[in-house]
Design a protein that fits this description.
alpha+beta
Length: 114
């Protein structure tokens, strides 16, 4: 799979973009949300969410409705086809990543295995 193919496969829903924009309103100008994949968690890999004002040359930048989400080049293959959403239900509110590459997820939704 080429980077060009992967670049178009990570998406941000309208709900997630609206929530990111709301959160970033309280952060310094130019702040973006970075999502990365790290080893660890109860299922082998885990997502990490960070605020940053630094964009690397090899980052995938997804811009939607005033929100910018960054995914680094190393994390991108693990996240190909992933959708970032904002879910607000009876259990609570949180970002949810729907990753078609994950064969198992933990109960908290932040850890997965391939």
């Amino acid at each position: 799979m080429t980077t060009e193919t992967l670049d178009t496969s990570v998406t941000v829903t309208d709900r997630a973009a609206a929530r990111i924009t709301k959160i970033m309103a309280t952060e310094p100008p130019g702040t973006m949300l970075r999502i990365s994949v790290e080893g660890g968690g109860c299922s082998g890999f885990q997502y990490r969410f960070d605020f940053t004002t630094e964009r690397n040359a090899d980052d995938l930048a997804i811009e939607k409705a005033g929100a910018t989400v960054l995914v680094d080049e190393v994390s991108l293959p693990y996240m190909a086809g992933t959708e970032l959403d904002w879910v607000d239900d009876l259990i609570g509110s949180a970002f949810k990543l729907r990753n078609p590459n994950a064969v198992a997820n933990c109960g908290c939704g932040t850890s997965f295995s391939l």
